[in-house]
Amino acid sequence: MIKNYFKIALRNFWNNKVLSLINILGLSIGISAALVIFLIVNYEFSFDRFQKDADRIYRVVLDVKYNGGTEGHSAAVPSPLSTAIQNEVTGIDATVPVMQFQGDATVKVSVLGNSENPVIYKKQSDIVFTNQQYLQLLSYQWVANSKQVSLEDPFTVVLTESRAKLYFPGVAATNIIGKQLTYNDINVTVSGIVKDLNEQTAFTALEFISFPTISKTNLQYQFMMDVWNDWMSYSQLYIKISKGNTAERVEMQLKDILNKYDKEANNADRSMAYHLQPLNDLHFNNKYQGGGNRIVHKPTLYGLLSIAAFLLLLGCINFINLTTAQASQRAKEIGVRKTMGSSKKQLVLQFLSETFFITLIATIVSVALTPLLLKMFEDFIPSGLHFDLLNQPSFVLFLLLLIISISFLSGIYPAFILSNFKPVLVLKNQISAGSVQTRNAWIRKTLTVSQFVIAQFFVITTLMISKQINFSLQADMGFNKEAIINFNQPRDSITTHGKLLLNEIKSLPGVANASTGFLAPADKGMSFTNLSFIDGKEEITPNVNVQLRWGDPDYIDVYKIKILAGRNVERSDTIKEFLINESYAHELGFQHPEEALNKFLKWNGSNMPIVGIMKDFHFQSLRASIGPVVFGGSNGQTFHIQLKANNVDGTLWRNTIAEIQKIYKGMYPDEDFNYTFLDDTIANFYESEQHTANLLRWSTVFAIIISCLGLLGLVIYTTNLRGKEIGIRKVLGASVAQIVSILSKDFMQLVLIAFVIAAPIAWWVSYKWLEDFAYRTPMSWWIFLLSGLVMMFFALITLSMQTVKAARANPVDSLRDE
């Protein structure tokens, strides 16, 4: 019986090749999108699922609330907190401090005992200071040495297998134990080797230096191991609570610790609290940035799933539409089968098997296309994601469920419609096209409208997101961002080489101006500082976060930041005076910014005069409103180079940058010269939006293709059905244009109805999305008009492919059998 079903399915496929190929193409686009999105979503949601007792593992985080309503969130905590928890908090199975290695780590490896000529590895990443419980928490598999004592002593390090092979190629793991490594100026001994995790995890470290090493070196001061009222992003802390214990109980004990060691944590101006962030929240919560963890926007993943569902729905709608439209052509076949004894159940299974056959072919095509789609979307694909059909059982299971689900959803309605035909009426030719089409026309029209609603929605939202991104990139940031490059010099040579390097760069003919300092006016990094305003004898601390920038006086000229009142800072090696922006002047209570001149701000225990007022500029993306900024006069390790206008062939910038690199390498022959253009840095503010826009563009293309394929299939069927009517009209004198208009009118009405439905939905979604931007583009009427015209254009092109052909056909061919 099953063999017979598939023989009939193959025969039906061959007899209706065009419509079958349209169905396969529509379904394969939807399935391909679903497969790629499944790989992405499954990868992101698989982070740290492998962890044993993951529900009992938390990261300790810090939340701050100011009375002015401002909130602060930190993934970092004060360094001494881990020791306090170990000694004073009950119900904890493991306390795991994770201190990121600061700066660029240069690793020297003494090979074969030759310490005079070590092998040097520059800028090694993923190095942490931690304790033995880190390795136990993550259930590392040991390759060499004991997991109980490898990180107990100072000046020891455990390596992952990949790093061990990098540093000691060809050496057996057991022979690496006892070898010496030097991290900058810290000499350590390899005490153990573990296998790489090879799992999706927030714990990405590859080298583990023993935590007791910190207390035996100057790192105890750099890591502020005795400081409770300050913390840096390199200091994170994880705990594993005991069975039966709760996060709430632990947080109550952490509250006592905070009040005990930081008396100023909670006062009239602010309140602070430690909270426990669940392990499964680390990968998705962007409130707690830092630690090098990649944060994923969960709503974006749900949006991806919605896109996959929409594209699959479009393919299913195509199938339902075209199958029900063919109903009258298969009516006699059904009548004969029923007369020969076929039951309704058998007919339903037959039509479902035909759907399954089409879906199976579409799935095979989709699997073949998946690697190509992953390549197309590589900017959106996580770097660790890969496609391996034979070694991904979850993917195979998803594929099987997808085939079954699509076959059922696409085939069940047409199967019941076709199997319900009455054999007596069918064989008397009383199941006419008119009766069948009248009964089901509204369903096909509804499904067609639904297709174009989805496609129209994609068009409008894509145009709106692209408009906002363009608005953000072209917006006046309040400073010059064109033709500026930034690079850093080694931190330990600012005083020895900084001025010489700056002067040599300034002397280059392609350089307009140059400065040294800290971050650019807008940068991916953030630097908040604590300031108090001296109002006469009274010290006032406004409840605001103040951004800090510094540089020499040329910094202001390089970026063309306008000074509205007062003067620029004077040249100095240390900060002695401040410029403030308009927003900060208003926060301090001045109606006119210039009133803040010659007032004082208390910073690092010293009173700093306000010598100038800067015009407001954006120091973040346009999502955030402009806040208070101060600028101090001081040298720094970051160079800010303004290039002269480039020539036509682009060689001036290229040659100037090459000359800067030559000067840099002359002073630092062992250092890499890495620079960035400031406008590229600003463009990266909107990297997520650009990926979303790119994804929506492809989704829009796919949605339009699928919708137009469905429309084409219906037009083919309709023109075949109305062939005699078209022939009669031509005989009676109707022109090609008139016939095309008659055939197209009903379909264009459906597209117009889809626009009317989609426009308000797309407006609302776009409006909610734009709410994330403090500065946003207006929702212009022309966006909706343009998107409607785009959809009408593609619909007309699709219709004309068949209607013109039908209208120009010889009427004799359609009327000869009358």
TrEMBL record:
It holds the Pfam family MacB_PCD. It is a multi-pass membrane protein. It is found in: Cell membrane. InterPro entries: ABC3_permease_C, MacB_PCD, Macrolide_Exporter_MacB. It comes from the Bacteria. GO terms for molecular function: transmembrane transporter activity. Its main location: membrane. Residues 306-422, 701-811 form the ABC3 transporter permease C-terminal domain. Residues 20-256 form the MacB-like periplasmic core domain. Coiled coil: none annotated. PANTHER family: ABC-TYPE MACROLIDE FAMILY EXPORT SYSTEM PERMEASE COMPONENT 2, MEMBRANE COMPONENT OF TRANSPORTER-RELATED. This is ABC-type antimicrobial peptide transport system permease subunit. It comes from Albibacterium bauzanense.
